[in-house]
Design goal:
By secondary structure, the protein is α+β, with helices and mostly antiparallel strands. Helix content is 43%, strand content 12%. The chain has a 5-stranded mixed beta sheet with strand order 2-3-7-8-4.
């Protein structure tokens, strides 16, 4: 993806399946536990040399720029939604990069490497910069926007007081909200994407989901690949009205 003020640098969703298979967002602790971080399941560490994408998505500067753009557009999008509903908006306090196990904690629980989480208690998003940058180099900047969009959605759920009995409900709603955010900022012209990107994004989302046979009510469940893709594109195409927030 590309920010509206820098259109043309790159804007492809190619290869997103690889990133999302490695980074299927998960609940770390049961829904509703005070201070419980919501984030990623530890993905298997990739073996061999990381392949740099042909579109030039490979520098630390580009990565940092996209993280900041994703944060800024998510904040701008949600501020507009809250304002439209007559409510005041409080941005997520911080987005933190870390490198080591235990460098960041949430309510006394250490955030492990190869992860990204939203911490309810301290109101921050934290991401392993080495893991995230590796995925960024492999598949492009779409990974960053989905990652920040999904974790920011967990922060919005907290602000709205959304509570569910099962993890899968919260995670599928966050997928829908991430889709609504991305669809909204593309429609507003704050981000751009190329022809064919949505088809590639759909293929990527269909590559993620819970392992076969995992009960939907199990702690940490996210839904089948079809459910996750449906949730994301329901939000992307129909905006927040499709995400069950009312």
């Amino acid at each position: 993806m590309a920010a509206g003020e820098r259109q043309g640098r790159r804007g492809r969703f190619i290869g997103l399946a690889v990133a999302l298979v490695a980074a299927a967002a998960c609940m770390v602790d049961p829904v509703g536990q005070p201070g419980a971080p919501t984030g990623q399941r530890d993905p298997a560490s990739p073996s061999g040399e990381v392949t740099t994408r042909a579109d030039g998505t490979d520098t630390v500067e580009e990565f940092q720029e996209d993280v900041e753009t994703a944060r800024r557009t998510a904040e701008r999008y949600w501020a507009a939604q809250f304002e439209a509903s007559g409510s005041s908006f409080r941005p997520i306090r911080r987005v933190i990069a870390y490198q080591r196990d235990g460098e960041v904690s949430c309510g006394g629980q250490e955030v492990p490497r190869n992860n990204a989480v939203y911490c309810t208690l301290s109101d921050f998003i934290a991401y392993d910069i080495n893991w995230s940058f590796g995925a960024f180099r492999q598949v492009g900047d779409a990974f960053v926007y989905y990652l920040i969009g999904h974790e920011y959605a967990h922060g919005i759920q907290t602000r709205l007081g959304v509570q569910y009995n099962f993890t899968i409900q919260q995670e599928l709603q966050a997928d829908c909200m991430a889709g609504a955010y991305l669809g909204g900022v593309v429609e507003a012209g704050w981000l751009t994407l190329d022809e064919g990107d949505l088809d590639e994004f759909r293929e990527g989302l269909l590559a993620v989901g819970d392992d076969p046979g995992q009960p939907w009510f199990a702690e940490g469940s996210h839904g089948t690949p079809e459910q996750r893709a449906e949730a994301f594109f329901r939000g992307y195409e129909r905006s927040l009205s499709a995400c069950g927030l009312s």
